[in-house]
Backbone:
């Protein structure tokens, strides 16, 4: 007989750590947030569910650092966003190389190619970990947040679970970089689900003779929103693409559904590998995504929700810029109000959890704007434990000193 519920026995949980700034999630947004908070003088602890940094960029093998420019030859992202791009290719590019930008070529030369790079995911993950350790950031891998501890409307700590069991980490400020707004959801902030959900994908590297290549197996990142590439075609960087694996969609925040989606993607990938081996005996897989390729799931509903129609619209509380990685021309100022909700004053969000409409989500979920919002969130967390009361001009001044461009 299957019981309908089980009452968990109450017990006292050990406070295993105390920190000023707790960053939940070690993807690009979380790494940027931890770097910024540490550089601005805060004690930082970063929690990560997996055993490596970089999230989809590294563990998911989405190893393309999308553009830092507007597609018209003008760079719009500087600061940690550019610093991490250069770190990702410290040991050389694996595909596209932004030579025109690194060499500070003419405007005409920059217009011919965007400020984009393809990197080695293993080296990038290791370099980010090394950087955080040098900054004194404490990293706790293999840890999942299961609940938050609140006093009135403020987060006093989070309950985590790892190999040591369940414990509490107390904090003054929490930065939600989970990618799924897990902390915001657990803390009672308003959240929203992406309307369309996610398609199946499972990128992998394969060896075809003497060459190792990246296969975008289940392509959600279309290089041009007006054109759908042919099956088996190459992307602009020479990677083989498979645009669709199945018609199913999944939310990314339902456990059994997510597990089923990953298994379906694995079966499709296995069939693809066998087909490759039939054509070429030297065809062999080298590495596959080790986390689900979830692009958009749950986000916070902040004090402002930004839309992609606000192209080149100025915001007084802008904390950074981003272009549109899919096409040249658009450029957006990102308002600070998209990063927090007054319902939980000491919680701030970054990365793909910020408050944007579904169309804008497609723009802000990728590496460069995740680094931009991460830097802003980490800097803000070093300045206050009540984001609704923060003097935004003080934050902007600090960001400008960190080489962030705020306005178009």
Residues:
């Amino acid at each position: 007989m299957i019981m309908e519920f089980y009452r968990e026995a109450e017990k006292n949980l050990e406070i295993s750590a105390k920190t000023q700034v707790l960053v939940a999630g070690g993807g690009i947004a979380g790494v940027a947030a931890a770097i910024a908070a540490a550089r601005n003088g805060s004690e930082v602890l970063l929690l990560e569910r997996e055993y490596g940094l970089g999230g989809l960029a590294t563990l998911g093998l989405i190893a393309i650092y999308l553009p830092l420019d507007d597609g018209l030859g003008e760079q719009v992202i500087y600061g940690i966003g550019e610093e991490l791009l250069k770190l990702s290719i410290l040991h050389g590019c694996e595909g596209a190389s932004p030579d025109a930008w690194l060499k500070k070529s003419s405007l005409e030369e920059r217009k011919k190619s965007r400020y984009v790079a393809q990197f080695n995911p293993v080296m990038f993950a290791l370099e980010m970990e090394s950087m955080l350790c040098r900054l004194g950031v404490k990293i706790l891998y293999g840890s999942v947040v299961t609940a938050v501890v609140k006093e009135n409307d403020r987060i006093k700590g989070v309950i985590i679970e790892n190999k040591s069991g369940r414990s509490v980490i107390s904090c003054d400020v929490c930065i939600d970089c989970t990618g799924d707004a897990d902390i915001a959801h657990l803390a009672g902030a308003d959240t929203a689900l992406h309307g369309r959900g996610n398609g199946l994908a499972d990128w992998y590297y394969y060896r075809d003779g003497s060459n190792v290549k990246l296969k975008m197996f289940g392509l959600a990142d279309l290089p041009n929103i007006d054109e759908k590439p042919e099956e088996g075609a190459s992307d602009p960087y020479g990677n083989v693409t498979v645009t669709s694996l199945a018609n199913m969609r999944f939310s990314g925040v339902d456990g059994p559904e997510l597990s089923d989606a990953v298994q379906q993607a694995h079966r499709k990938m296995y069939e693809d590998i066998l087909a490759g081996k039939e054509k070429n005996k030297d065809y062999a897989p080298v590495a596959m995504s080790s986390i689900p390729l979830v692009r958009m799931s749950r986000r916070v509903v902040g004090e402002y929700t930004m839309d992609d129609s606000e192209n080149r619209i100025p915001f007084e509380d802008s904390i950074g810029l981003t272009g549109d990685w899919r096409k040249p021309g658009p450029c957006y100022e990102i308002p600070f109000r998209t990063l927090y909700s007054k319902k939980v004053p000491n919680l701030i969000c970054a990365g793909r959890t910020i408050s944007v409409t579904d169309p804008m989500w497609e723009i802000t979920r990728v590496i460069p704007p995740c680094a931009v919002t991460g830097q802003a969130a980490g800097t803000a967390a070093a300045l206050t434990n009540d984001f609704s009361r923060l003097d935004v001009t003080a934050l902007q001044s600090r960001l400008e000193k960190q080489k962030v461009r705020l306005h178009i």
About this structure: The chain is about 25% helix and 25% strand.
